[in-house]
Design a protein that fits this description.
One of its GO terms (molecular function) is protein serine/threonine kinase activity. By secondary structure, this protein is of the alpha+beta class. It folds into 3 domains: about 40-280, Jelly Rolls (Sandwich), CATH 2.60.120; about 330-430, Phosphorylase Kinase, domain 1 (2-Layer Sandwich), CATH 3.30.200; about 435-640, Orthogonal Bundle (Transferase(Phosphotransferase), domain 1), CATH 1.10.510.10. The chain has 14 helices and 31 strands. The strands form 7 sheets. Strands 1, 2, 4, 5, 8, 15, 16, 17 and 19 form a 9-stranded antiparallel sheet that branches. Strands 3, 6, 7, 9, 10, 11, 12 and 18 form an 8-stranded antiparallel sheet that branches.
Length: about 675
């Protein structure tokens, strides 16, 4: 049968123009996708294409990865150096949007990436963006050959991130070789204007690389704006050392302890000159935008019914007032500036099922902690701590500090999500840590035994979190209650320092004004009993006690132990003098540990516990020792115990508890015994 070819071609062209949302010109790896309805993409992880053509990489789940790559690799001509350099050139533009989940913080970001393979073996989520892992291929050019432009919304100090809202150029590692805060050039004012990557609004990105000139430009702008005259990032880079014979191109995205939805609305790519412009009118809408419009239509339809609704509310006013008393809160005008951090008592009451005992996670000296599920936050799990505020510090100042701590962002800190006040009671809301507190693993049979690898990593995690608090945030944060009970473990057994109920803030270079001795017995630095002044070095002392209890599986003070083993730091010191320091390790470890690491932790723990503050290392030095970047000074057990703690003790009374606290000696001269301190937390014992 004869076929009229011109007629057939016309029909096919008409079909594509009427029905295809995606136009793919696959010649030489050039294509344009105004939406992804019929796109030929290789999807991985949680990535899905909605019926509208919207590409969604991640959803509101935590610790997930979503990828979408062009399935045909780009081939590079290495027959001649000039031809090869030209073949490396590319131009691309795409539109993305990041939408926060239930909280004011976001998941991690999106990376536009080139990779020699679509099998990302061992790649993890969180700050590695689904492209890398530690230590298999992070920074390893022989295992990687990955080039990426990251749109990062989390500050990761371990990668020297500049802030929590930046664009970076990555080569074989999430540690960017060049980065800049997200912004776009506004020609009318002749300066850059800031962009919030996780605003939920669509943002367009242009990435252009000239292989001959070895010049890379990255440009951003809001969707409604034309391409700016000046790029955000412009740098000279030779991609011939990164690209192999064939490379795949696409997107990878991830979430961490907090989730957010990441979308790609359209994508154009070309290896032959400028990438084709996206048709913005044909791009799919975001679900949140459609929902907002639907609500507006519903409100318009419902306006005629508002009068009837008002009458109904009036008749139920009495019932409402009675029920309102049940959830009554304390609110003052000055709290409006901290509004985003405030939860309603009603929501927290429902989240914890009325603070039922079945939801109780633990009881400490400062309050009770409950598990909760926010009803309007996609079943987000939270930990809710109820404490009674002593009112010695003004409530306004206390809430100001709570609001400031809510801005702390670090992978080894439990995220403080907000607070609530009610009838003299302060309620703090944290991220929920599924594996509970470290002390449950060390001192009870409720949890399985921790391996040495897990213990060492947890110690390192807490050290990283404390370094961020002491030196890397905009203010100095004194935790003042570092202990195993305040180290929480997430679902991946990462250590996170939590419970900032006693924390205090002050400016870098200022003198801390804390004068009340607070903390937990066994973790208090001796100078606290004399001056009452907490510093970063008193946090170091408590961290030293934590290191010893993690390695030895024992609390700093064990009243039921033999007299010579009652004070953990003394027992480890004496064992070191006898050349048997490794015998103090937790017997549950057996021989399954690294000798060098165990000795380092024990000796470093003693050095942090030095009675003279000037002899203790800083958290930055501690982290360098743990990472092997610096070598622990050659100290002896006599160096770390120039001040002895002897068995003779003075009886002191703490609230309803009577405890014995040792006299401090320098040489043979007693300095001072601990005076009455009502605010010390005995942690329920």
């Amino acid at each position: 049968m004869a076929i009229d070819l011109p007629l057939l071609e016309s029909l096919l062209l008409l079909f594509v123009s009427m029905n295809a949302v995606v136009a793919l010109a696959q010649d030489n790896g050039s294509f344009v996708c105004n939406g992804f309805q019929r796109a030929n993409l290789r999807l991985g992880g949680t990535a899905v294409i909605h019926p509208t053509g919207l590409l969604q990489l991640t959803n509101t789940s935590k610790q997930i990865i979503g990828r979408a790559f062009y399935p045909i690799p780009l081939e590079f001509n290495k027959s001649s150096s000039a031809e090869y350099s030209r073949s490396l050139s590319f131009s691309t533009t795409f539109v993305f949007a990041m939408v926060r989940g239930a909280t004011n913080v976001s998941g991690h970001g999106i990376a536009f990436a080139f990779s020699p393979s679509l099998e990302f073996s061992g790649a993890v989520a969180s700050q590695y963006l689904g492209l890398f892992n530690l230590p298999t291929n992070n920074g390893n050019s022989s295992n990687n050959q990955v080039f990426a432009i990251e749109l990062d919304t989390i500050l990761s100090p371990e990668f020297s991130d500049i802030d929590d809202n930046h664009v970076g150029i990555d080569v074989n590692s999430p540690r960017s070789i060049k980065a800049a805060p997200a912004a776009y050039y506004w020609s009318e004012e002749g300066k850059n204007k800031s962009l919030v990557l996780v605003s939920g609004d669509p943002i367009q990105v242009w990435i252009e690389y000239d292989g001959v000139k070895q010049q890379l430009n990255v440009t951003l702008a809001p969707l409604a704006n034309p391409k700016p005259d000046l790029p955000l990032l412009s740098t000279s880079i030779d991609l011939s050392s990164v690209f192999v014979d064939s490379m795949y191109v696409g997107f990878s995205s991830s979430t961490g302890a907090v989730a957010s939805s990441h979308y790609i609305l359209g994508w154009s790519f070309s290896r032959n000159g400028q990438a084709q412009r996206l048709e913005l009118s044909r791009l799919p809408s975001l679900p949140i935008l459609r929902e907002s419009k639907a609500k507006q239509r519903l409100l318009k339809i419902g306006l005629p019914l508002m009068t009837v609704a008002a009458l109904l509310i009036a008749t139920m006013g009495g019932i409402y007032i009675i029920r309102r008393k049940k959830y009554a809160e304390v609110r003052e005008d000055w709290e409006q500036e901290y509004g985003p951090h405030r939860f309603s008592y009603k929501d927290l009451y429902r989240a914890t099922k009325g603070f039922r005992d079945k939801e109780l996670l633990g009881v400490g000296g400062s309050g009770r902690v409950y598990r909760g599920v926010l009803p309007a936050a996609s079943n987000t799990q939270i930990a809710v701590k109820r404490i009674t505020h002593d009112s010695k510090q003004g409530m306004k100042g206390f809430v100001a500090e709570i609001a400031s701590m809510g801005r702390l962002r670090h992978r080894n800190l439990v995220q403080l999500l907000g607070y609530c006040r009610r009838k003299g009671e302060l309620i703090l809301v944290y991220d929920y840590m599924s594996n509970g507190s470290l002390d449950k693993f060390l001192f009870t049979n409720e949890r399985p035994n921790l391996s040495w690898f897990q213990r060492y990593k947890i110690i390192r995690d807490v050290a990283s979190g404390l370094l961020y608090l002491h030196e890397e945030w905009e203010q100095v944060v004194l935790h003042r209650d570092v202990k195993a009970g305040n180290v929480l473990l997430d679902e991946d057994m990462n250590g996170r320092l939590g419970d900032f109920g006693l924390a205090r803030l002050y400016d870098h270079g200022a003198n801390p004004q804390t004068t009340h001795v607070v903390g937990t017995l066994g973790y208090l630095a001796p100078e606290l009993t004399r001056t009452g002044k907490a510093t970063t070095i008193t946090d170091v002392f408590a961290f030293g006690a934590l290191m010893l209890e993690v390695a030895c599986g024992r609390r700093p003070v064990e009243m039921r132990a033999l007299p010579e083993e009652m004070i953990l730091v003394d027992w480890v010191t004496e064992s070191w003098k006898k050349g048997a320091i490794l015998e103090t390790r937790d017997p549950r470890l057996g021989d399954d540990y690294v000798v060098e690491e165990m000795e380092l932790v024990l000796k470093l723990g003693l050095l942090c516990s030095h009675p003279l503050p000037t002899c203790r290392p800083t958290m930055r030095q501690i982290l360098q020792y743990l990472d092997g970047v610096a070598t622990l000074p050659n100290v002896s057990p006599f160096d770390v115990c120039s001040t002895a703690v002897v068995a003779s003790a003075s009886e002191q009374r703490f609230g309803h508890y009577v405890v014995s606290y040792p006299t401090i000696l320098i040489g043979k001269t007693p300095v001072q015994t601990l005076s009455r301190i009502d605010s010390i937390l005995i942690d329920g014992r």
